[in-house]
Amino acid sequence: MVTVTAPPTPGIPLAAVLSRADLGLRRIAGPDAADVLVHGAHTSELTDPEPYLLGGELLLTAGVHAPAAPVGDYFEEYAERVARGGAVALGFGVTPVFDTVPPELVAACERRGIPLLEVPPRTTFSGVARAVWELMAQARNAELRRVTEAQQALASAAARPDPLPSVLRQLAQRTGGFAVAVTPEGDEPHHAGTRPPRAVSEALAELTAVVRPHATHLFPTPSSAADTVGGTHLSAYALSTGGALGLATQARSPGDHTIAGAAIVLLSLLTGEHRSTGDTRRAATLVDLLLGADRAEEATELLGADTTWRVIHARPLTPRPAPDLATPLTSTATDDSLTRALIPSDQDVTAHAGHVLGVSSPALARDLPLADTQAAHALTRARATRSPLAHHRPDDAPAPTLAALSGKPALLETLRTWLSLHGSWEGTALALTVHRNTVRQRIARCATLLEADLDDPDTRMELWFALRHMA
After folding, report:
1. Contact in structure between 58 and 91 (CB atoms under 8 Å)
2. Using CA atoms, how far apart are residues 283 and 276, in angstroms rounded to an integer?
3. Is the dihedral of CA 32, 33, 37, 41 positive or negative?
4. In Å, what is the CA distance from 44 to each residue of 47, 100, 168?
5. pLDDT band of 220, cuts 50, 70, 90
């Protein structure tokens, strides 16, 4: 099974491209186009286009790469490389190389479930690409309008005499699902939309329990959770007052998360006030205590002997409030110059706009002072490399290897050149006589295949020595 990482652009159904009468495309192999989402169009006449694909593309070719009289399993192997590259469909232009789509390619695409489109002679590949981008722009604009209208409707609902149920009704209508507000005690005083079947409702209730605070405020809970039950998408979001918002929908579009975010802010304001100043001060005192030296016994007693934690250091790029790190265990300097926080080691840490973050390795409660030092060093490295987020790398962490790039000379040469030029996109593109976007795509591909952070100077150094050893 090939894992496709599509670009962060709205996808459009392949059927929408096929419906363009001006293109005259015809599907001759592969699954129904209605269930295939296209994230772009790319033309390539390379025998192996895999290194140059991001995933999600409609790949266009006229078969220039194929021998005049293809023998053996040429098209079988070509279709396999297209599938590995993540292309969701293949468009084959007839003439001037082939008068018809080669039947071997039709059979190979059918076996791999790749939609194969016949591109007639009168249709240019640039015309197909332009049509794809036009359809994507229309989809993006439609989604933006939907989100904007939903946010306005939610704001208007919050001003009604019955604001809380009105907001829930608008949320259910705008997402086409079921919305429920849950109190910190687990009660459901308000809901809107058609309640899903019992099994789905029970699963949604369990999901909202995940994001509600536990009996003690010491152990932080995730700010959101998601699941799918019986084809229904379930989402749960924590409210600042301790309650939760549950949402069940049959489909999930890119804008639904933004709409839910607006509802969360309104519901948090409607159901109570944020954490008091006293709570904030107590949490800050506790964090300072736990991260202090000679406090191993107190930390173990409060946090448990077997639970592992991470320490986060966050520094703003410009004067601004501390970031929301989804944990009550937070301590911020009086001048907002540094925020320190504790989170469970299995909780994800993401970058925050306007801040630089350093994250420690997982540590037991008795080792939190060491983790605090690791987070400080990671923050220093993040600032030095101008990265939004850096993790501490243990001394015994295995060095990255180049095995995943074996048999991919283009990627190896691009990585070697890019490292030799200290990560310069323009310099690498000039040295390799390719476009800088091609360099970015190849380096991103290298990072994915190597499972390595190429912003980490230590990783870059180790890869450079590994490449020198190969020479």
Report:
1. yes
2. 11
3. positive
4. 9, 19, 49
5. low
pLDDT of 217 reads 44
- Considering the chain, what is the average pLDDT of its residues? 85
Residue pair 268/239 in contact (Cβ under 8 Å)? The answer is yes
Instruction: List the Cα angle 137/256/39 in 5-degree steps.
Output: 35
pLDDT band at 428 (very low <50, low <70, confident <90, very high): very high
Query: From CA 350, how far away is CA 249, in angstroms rounded?
Result: 26
Mean of the pLDDT values across residues 328-350?
Answer: 83
Site of tokens 């399993």? 73
Separation of first and last alpha carbons in the chain: 33
